[in-house]
Protein backbone atom coordinates (compact mmCIF):
# COMPACT_ATOMS: atom_id res chain seq x y z
CA UNK A 1 0.00 0.00 0.00
CA UNK A 2 1.40 3.34 -0.99
CA UNK A 3 1.05 6.46 1.09
CA UNK A 4 0.38 9.78 -0.59
CA UNK A 5 2.94 12.43 0.23
CA UNK A 6 1.25 15.51 1.62
CA UNK A 7 2.41 18.76 0.06
CA UNK A 8 4.03 21.19 2.51
CA UNK A 9 1.78 24.04 3.52
CA UNK A 10 2.60 27.42 2.05
CA UNK A 11 4.24 29.69 4.64
CA UNK A 12 2.13 32.47 6.04
CA UNK A 13 3.15 35.79 4.52
CA UNK A 14 2.63 39.09 6.22
CA UNK A 15 2.72 42.71 5.03
CA UNK A 16 6.17 43.13 6.58
CA UNK A 17 7.53 40.36 4.33
CA UNK A 18 6.79 42.45 1.26
CA UNK A 19 7.68 45.92 2.57
CA UNK A 20 10.95 47.73 3.11
CA UNK A 21 12.43 47.89 6.62
CA UNK A 22 10.82 50.40 8.97
CA UNK A 23 13.80 52.79 8.91
CA UNK A 24 13.63 52.96 5.13
CA UNK A 25 9.89 53.60 5.16
CA UNK A 26 10.39 56.43 7.67
CA UNK A 27 13.59 58.05 6.38
CA UNK A 28 13.85 57.34 2.66
CA UNK A 29 10.74 59.26 1.64
CA UNK A 30 10.04 62.47 -0.22
CA UNK A 31 8.48 63.96 2.89
CA UNK A 32 11.62 63.37 4.94
CA UNK A 33 13.74 64.83 2.15
CA UNK A 34 11.59 67.99 2.08
CA UNK A 35 11.81 68.36 5.86
CA UNK A 36 15.60 67.95 5.74
CA UNK A 37 15.85 70.48 2.90
CA UNK A 38 13.68 72.94 4.84
CA UNK A 39 15.91 72.67 7.90
CA UNK A 40 19.04 73.07 5.77
CA UNK A 41 17.71 76.17 3.99
CA UNK A 42 16.57 77.70 7.30
CA UNK A 43 19.97 77.14 8.91
CA UNK A 44 21.78 78.50 5.85
CA UNK A 45 19.57 81.61 5.79
CA UNK A 46 20.10 82.15 9.52
CA UNK A 47 23.87 82.03 9.13
CA UNK A 48 24.25 83.92 5.86
CA UNK A 49 21.31 86.29 5.38
CA UNK A 50 21.51 89.55 7.29
CA UNK A 51 18.67 90.12 9.78
CA UNK A 52 17.10 86.73 9.00
CA UNK A 53 17.60 85.66 12.61
CA UNK A 54 16.12 88.89 13.96
CA UNK A 55 13.38 88.79 16.61
CA UNK A 56 10.61 89.66 14.14
CA UNK A 57 11.61 87.30 11.33
CA UNK A 58 9.82 84.22 12.67
CA UNK A 59 6.70 86.25 13.43
CA UNK A 60 6.49 87.79 9.96
CA UNK A 61 7.43 84.51 8.30
CA UNK A 62 4.59 82.64 10.00
CA UNK A 63 2.14 85.47 9.34
CA UNK A 64 3.08 85.46 5.65
CA UNK A 65 2.65 81.72 5.18
CA UNK A 66 -0.39 81.31 7.46
CA UNK A 67 -2.98 81.58 4.62
CA UNK A 68 -1.01 79.09 2.53
CA UNK A 69 -0.67 76.71 5.48
CA UNK A 70 -4.42 76.86 6.04
CA UNK A 71 -5.47 76.29 2.43
CA UNK A 72 -2.83 73.57 1.91
CA UNK A 73 -4.71 71.34 4.40
CA UNK A 74 -7.85 70.69 2.30
CA UNK A 75 -5.89 71.11 -0.95
CA UNK A 76 -3.75 68.11 0.02
CA UNK A 77 -6.78 65.86 0.29
CA UNK A 78 -8.25 67.18 -2.95
CA UNK A 79 -5.08 66.52 -4.94
CA UNK A 80 -4.72 63.05 -3.38
CA UNK A 81 -8.11 62.22 -4.90
CA UNK A 82 -6.75 63.25 -8.29
CA UNK A 83 -8.64 66.55 -8.44
CA UNK A 84 -7.51 70.16 -8.05
CA UNK A 85 -9.00 73.45 -6.83
CA UNK A 86 -7.71 76.59 -8.53
CA UNK A 87 -10.41 78.85 -7.11
CA UNK A 88 -9.06 79.05 -3.54
CA UNK A 89 -7.40 82.46 -3.94
CA UNK A 90 -10.49 83.99 -5.53
CA UNK A 91 -12.58 82.65 -2.62
CA UNK A 92 -10.10 84.42 -0.32
CA UNK A 93 -10.65 87.64 -2.28
CA UNK A 94 -14.43 87.28 -2.23
CA UNK A 95 -14.53 86.61 1.52
CA UNK A 96 -12.26 89.62 2.05
CA UNK A 97 -14.63 91.87 0.13
CA UNK A 98 -17.72 90.51 1.89
CA UNK A 99 -16.10 91.03 5.29
CA UNK A 100 -15.35 94.64 4.37
CA UNK A 101 -18.75 95.35 2.83
CA UNK A 102 -20.76 93.85 5.70
CA UNK A 103 -18.63 95.53 8.36
CA UNK A 104 -18.82 98.85 6.53
CA UNK A 105 -22.61 98.57 6.54
CA UNK A 106 -22.64 98.40 10.34
CA UNK A 107 -22.20 94.69 11.15
CA UNK A 108 -19.79 93.54 13.80
CA UNK A 109 -16.66 91.69 12.70
CA UNK A 110 -17.88 88.30 14.02
CA UNK A 111 -21.21 88.60 12.18
CA UNK A 112 -19.54 89.76 8.96
CA UNK A 113 -16.97 86.97 9.24
CA UNK A 114 -19.73 84.38 9.72
CA UNK A 115 -21.44 85.52 6.53
CA UNK A 116 -18.11 85.46 4.68
CA UNK A 117 -17.56 81.87 5.86
CA UNK A 118 -21.03 80.93 4.61
CA UNK A 119 -20.14 82.45 1.25
CA UNK A 120 -16.97 80.34 1.18
CA UNK A 121 -19.05 77.26 1.98
CA UNK A 122 -21.40 78.09 -0.90
CA UNK A 123 -18.47 78.56 -3.29
CA UNK A 124 -16.98 75.23 -2.26
CA UNK A 125 -20.37 73.54 -2.58
CA UNK A 126 -20.72 74.87 -6.14
CA UNK A 127 -17.32 73.49 -7.07
CA UNK A 128 -18.05 70.19 -5.37
CA UNK A 129 -21.45 69.78 -7.01
CA UNK A 130 -20.12 70.41 -10.51
CA UNK A 131 -17.14 68.08 -10.02
CA UNK A 132 -18.64 65.30 -7.90
CA UNK A 133 -22.22 65.04 -9.11
CA UNK A 134 -22.24 66.59 -12.58
CA UNK A 135 -18.95 64.89 -13.42
CA UNK A 136 -17.09 67.86 -14.89
CA UNK A 137 -13.27 67.97 -14.70
CA UNK A 138 -12.10 69.90 -11.67
CA UNK A 139 -9.46 71.79 -13.65
CA UNK A 140 -12.06 73.29 -15.99
CA UNK A 141 -14.60 73.92 -13.21
CA UNK A 142 -12.23 75.71 -10.86
CA UNK A 143 -10.67 77.80 -13.62
CA UNK A 144 -14.19 78.98 -14.41
CA UNK A 145 -15.16 79.63 -10.79
CA UNK A 146 -11.80 81.35 -10.22
CA UNK A 147 -12.86 83.97 -12.75
CA UNK A 148 -16.45 83.98 -11.44
CA UNK A 149 -15.61 84.55 -7.76
CA UNK A 150 -12.88 87.08 -8.56
CA UNK A 151 -15.26 88.93 -10.88
CA UNK A 152 -17.92 89.13 -8.15
CA UNK A 153 -15.37 90.41 -5.65
CA UNK A 154 -14.06 93.10 -7.97
CA UNK A 155 -17.59 93.98 -9.03
CA UNK A 156 -18.67 94.62 -5.46
CA UNK A 157 -15.87 97.08 -4.67
CA UNK A 158 -14.36 98.04 -8.00
CA UNK A 159 -10.95 99.58 -7.51
CA UNK A 160 -11.73 100.94 -4.06
CA UNK A 161 -10.69 99.42 -0.73
CA UNK A 162 -12.27 99.27 2.71
CA UNK A 163 -9.69 99.94 5.39
CA UNK A 164 -11.74 100.78 8.48
CA UNK A 165 -11.81 97.77 10.79
CA UNK A 166 -12.23 97.46 14.53
CA UNK A 167 -8.83 97.87 16.14
CA UNK A 168 -9.38 94.97 18.53
CA UNK A 169 -9.85 92.45 15.74
CA UNK A 170 -7.14 93.96 13.58
CA UNK A 171 -4.67 93.73 16.47
CA UNK A 172 -5.77 90.16 17.16
CA UNK A 173 -4.72 89.15 13.64
CA UNK A 174 -1.20 90.48 14.21
CA UNK A 175 -0.65 89.63 17.90
CA UNK A 176 1.54 86.81 19.15
CA UNK A 177 1.05 84.10 21.77
CA UNK A 178 2.21 85.65 25.02
CA UNK A 179 5.86 86.69 24.91
CA UNK A 180 6.70 84.33 22.07
CA UNK A 181 7.17 85.23 18.41
CA UNK A 182 4.44 82.82 17.29
CA UNK A 183 1.34 84.57 15.85
CA UNK A 184 -2.06 83.84 17.33
CA UNK A 185 -3.27 82.55 13.96
CA UNK A 186 -1.13 79.46 14.57
CA UNK A 187 -3.64 78.32 17.21
CA UNK A 188 -6.58 77.80 14.78
CA UNK A 189 -4.09 76.45 12.25
CA UNK A 190 -2.83 73.86 14.77
CA UNK A 191 -6.41 72.80 15.52
CA UNK A 192 -7.21 72.43 11.82
CA UNK A 193 -3.91 70.63 11.14
CA UNK A 194 -4.68 68.04 13.84
CA UNK A 195 -8.22 67.61 12.53
CA UNK A 196 -7.09 67.11 8.92
CA UNK A 197 -4.28 64.77 10.00
CA UNK A 198 -6.73 62.57 11.87
CA UNK A 199 -9.18 62.75 8.97
CA UNK A 200 -6.62 61.76 6.34
CA UNK A 201 -4.33 59.34 8.15
CA UNK A 202 -6.46 57.81 10.92
CA UNK A 203 -9.98 57.42 9.57
CA UNK A 204 -11.91 55.36 7.05
CA UNK A 205 -12.73 58.61 5.24
CA UNK A 206 -9.01 59.19 4.70
CA UNK A 207 -8.49 55.67 3.40
CA UNK A 208 -11.28 56.34 0.96
CA UNK A 209 -9.50 59.51 -0.19
CA UNK A 210 -6.40 57.47 -1.08
CA UNK A 211 -8.49 54.78 -2.78
CA UNK A 212 -10.21 57.39 -4.95
CA UNK A 213 -6.84 58.78 -5.99
CA UNK A 214 -5.54 55.35 -6.94
CA UNK A 215 -8.68 54.26 -8.80
CA UNK A 216 -12.01 55.95 -8.24
CA UNK A 217 -13.97 53.18 -10.00
CA UNK A 218 -12.41 50.50 -7.82
CA UNK A 219 -13.02 52.69 -4.77
CA UNK A 220 -16.71 52.87 -5.71
CA UNK A 221 -16.98 49.08 -5.85
CA UNK A 222 -15.29 48.73 -2.45
CA UNK A 223 -17.99 50.87 -0.85
CA UNK A 224 -16.47 54.36 -0.97
CA UNK A 225 -18.99 57.10 -1.77
CA UNK A 226 -16.78 58.85 -4.31
CA UNK A 227 -19.12 61.71 -5.11
CA UNK A 228 -19.87 62.54 -1.47
CA UNK A 229 -16.18 62.41 -0.53
CA UNK A 230 -15.18 64.83 -3.28
CA UNK A 231 -18.09 67.13 -2.47
CA UNK A 232 -17.09 67.30 1.20
CA UNK A 233 -13.48 68.07 0.31
CA UNK A 234 -14.42 70.98 -1.95
CA UNK A 235 -16.77 72.37 0.71
CA UNK A 236 -13.94 72.18 3.28
CA UNK A 237 -11.65 73.92 0.81
CA UNK A 238 -14.15 76.75 0.37
CA UNK A 239 -14.65 77.28 4.11
CA UNK A 240 -10.94 77.19 4.95
CA UNK A 241 -10.15 79.53 2.05
CA UNK A 242 -12.75 81.98 3.32
CA UNK A 243 -11.21 81.82 6.80
CA UNK A 244 -7.79 82.50 5.28
CA UNK A 245 -9.29 85.48 3.43
CA UNK A 246 -10.71 86.89 6.67
CA UNK A 247 -7.33 86.60 8.37
CA UNK A 248 -5.61 88.15 5.34
CA UNK A 249 -7.99 91.12 5.43
CA UNK A 250 -7.62 91.80 9.14
CA UNK A 251 -3.87 91.40 9.08
CA UNK A 252 -3.33 93.93 6.30
CA UNK A 253 -6.34 96.06 7.26
CA UNK A 254 -7.63 96.22 3.71
CA UNK A 255 -10.54 94.56 1.89
CA UNK A 256 -9.97 94.57 -1.87
CA UNK A 257 -11.26 92.51 -4.74
CA UNK A 258 -7.74 91.59 -5.85
CA UNK A 259 -6.54 90.39 -2.44
CA UNK A 260 -4.55 87.10 -2.51
CA UNK A 261 -4.16 87.12 -6.29
CA UNK A 262 -1.85 84.27 -7.31
CA UNK A 263 -1.99 82.45 -3.97
CA UNK A 264 -3.43 79.34 -5.60
CA UNK A 265 -0.12 78.72 -7.38
CA UNK A 266 1.84 78.99 -4.14
CA UNK A 267 -0.51 76.55 -2.43
CA UNK A 268 -0.32 73.99 -5.23
CA UNK A 269 3.46 74.38 -5.47
CA UNK A 270 3.81 73.72 -1.73
CA UNK A 271 1.50 70.69 -1.84
CA UNK A 272 3.33 69.08 -4.75
CA UNK A 273 6.72 69.96 -3.33
CA UNK A 274 5.67 68.31 -0.07
CA UNK A 275 5.36 64.91 -1.74
CA UNK A 276 1.75 64.76 -2.94
CA UNK A 277 1.44 63.15 -6.37
CA UNK A 278 -0.28 65.27 -8.99
CA UNK A 279 -1.80 62.02 -10.30
CA UNK A 280 -3.42 61.30 -6.93
CA UNK A 281 -3.22 58.43 -4.47
CA UNK A 282 -0.08 59.53 -2.63
CA UNK A 283 0.92 62.18 -0.10
CA UNK A 284 1.20 63.04 3.58
CA UNK A 285 0.36 66.21 5.43
CA UNK A 286 3.64 66.63 7.29
CA UNK A 287 5.51 66.78 3.98
CA UNK A 288 3.09 69.40 2.68
CA UNK A 289 3.52 71.61 5.74
CA UNK A 290 7.30 71.35 5.34
CA UNK A 291 6.89 72.36 1.70
CA UNK A 292 4.95 75.47 2.71
CA UNK A 293 7.61 76.44 5.23
CA UNK A 294 10.36 75.80 2.66
CA UNK A 295 8.80 78.16 0.14
CA UNK A 296 8.20 80.73 2.90
CA UNK A 297 11.81 80.60 4.11
CA UNK A 298 13.15 80.95 0.57
CA UNK A 299 10.85 83.89 -0.17
CA UNK A 300 11.68 85.63 3.11
CA UNK A 301 15.44 85.17 2.69
CA UNK A 302 15.35 86.45 -0.89
CA UNK A 303 13.27 89.46 0.17
CA UNK A 304 15.83 90.36 2.84
CA UNK A 305 18.53 90.08 0.17
CA UNK A 306 16.57 92.63 -1.92
CA UNK A 307 15.77 90.07 -4.62
CA UNK A 308 12.76 91.10 -6.71
CA UNK A 309 9.43 89.31 -6.55
CA UNK A 310 9.80 88.18 -10.16
CA UNK A 311 12.99 86.27 -9.33
CA UNK A 312 11.29 84.71 -6.32
CA UNK A 313 8.38 83.59 -8.50
CA UNK A 314 10.84 82.05 -10.96
CA UNK A 315 12.46 80.04 -8.17
CA UNK A 316 9.09 78.88 -6.83
CA UNK A 317 8.06 77.93 -10.37
CA UNK A 318 11.23 75.88 -10.84
CA UNK A 319 10.56 74.10 -7.55
CA UNK A 320 7.03 73.30 -8.73
CA UNK A 321 8.29 71.88 -12.04
CA UNK A 322 10.98 69.87 -10.26
CA UNK A 323 8.48 68.44 -7.77
CA UNK A 324 6.33 67.16 -10.66
CA UNK A 325 9.10 65.96 -12.98
CA UNK A 326 11.59 64.49 -10.51
CA UNK A 327 9.45 61.55 -9.28
CA UNK A 328 8.84 60.44 -12.87
CA UNK A 329 12.55 60.73 -13.70
CA UNK A 330 13.54 58.74 -10.61
CA UNK A 331 10.90 56.11 -11.36
CA UNK A 332 12.17 55.78 -14.94
CA UNK A 333 15.77 55.53 -13.73
CA UNK A 334 14.81 52.89 -11.19
CA UNK A 335 13.07 50.79 -13.84
CA UNK A 336 16.22 50.84 -15.98
CA UNK A 337 18.42 49.41 -13.25
CA UNK A 338 19.03 45.64 -13.41
CA UNK A 339 17.07 43.76 -10.79
CA UNK A 340 18.35 40.76 -8.91
CA UNK A 341 16.35 37.63 -9.57
CA UNK A 342 14.43 36.45 -6.54
CA UNK A 343 12.70 33.28 -5.52
CA UNK A 344 9.05 32.73 -6.20
CA UNK A 345 7.37 35.15 -3.71
CA UNK A 346 4.31 32.95 -3.47
CA UNK A 347 6.31 30.17 -1.81
CA UNK A 348 5.79 26.47 -2.60
CA UNK A 349 2.89 25.74 -4.93
CA UNK A 350 0.81 22.87 -3.56
CA UNK A 351 -0.65 21.93 -6.96
CA UNK A 352 2.79 21.64 -8.53
CA UNK A 353 4.20 19.72 -5.54
CA UNK A 354 1.29 17.31 -5.51
CA UNK A 355 1.65 16.64 -9.22
CA UNK A 356 5.31 15.74 -8.83
CA UNK A 357 5.01 13.86 -5.54
CA UNK A 358 5.27 10.06 -5.49
CA UNK A 359 2.07 8.12 -4.83
Mean pLDDT across the residues is 85
The assigned structural class equals: mainly alpha
Shape: globular
Unreliable stretches: 341-346, 349-359
Written account of the structure:
It is a single chain. The chain has 359 residues and is mainly alpha-helical. It has a single domain (30-332), classed as ABC transporter involved in vitamin B12 uptake, BtuC. It is built from 16 helices and no strands. 39% of the residues are buried. The model is unreliable at 341-346 and 349-359 (pLDDT under 50).
Describe the structure concisely.
With 359 residues, the chain is mostly helical.
Keywords:
single chain, 359 residues, mainly alpha, ABC transporter involved in vitamin B12 uptake, BtuC, 16 helices, 69% helix, globular, disordered C terminus
Amino acid sequence: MSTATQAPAAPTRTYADYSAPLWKRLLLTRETAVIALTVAVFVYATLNVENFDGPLTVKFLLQDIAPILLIALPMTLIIITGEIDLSVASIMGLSSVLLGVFHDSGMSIPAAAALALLAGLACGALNGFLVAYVGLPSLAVTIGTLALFRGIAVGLLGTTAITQFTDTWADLATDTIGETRIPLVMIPFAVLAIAFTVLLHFSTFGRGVYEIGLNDEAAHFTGVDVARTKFILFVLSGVVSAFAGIYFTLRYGSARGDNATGYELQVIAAVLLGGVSIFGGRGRLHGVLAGVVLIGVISSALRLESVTVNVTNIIVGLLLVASVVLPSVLGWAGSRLPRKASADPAGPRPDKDAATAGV
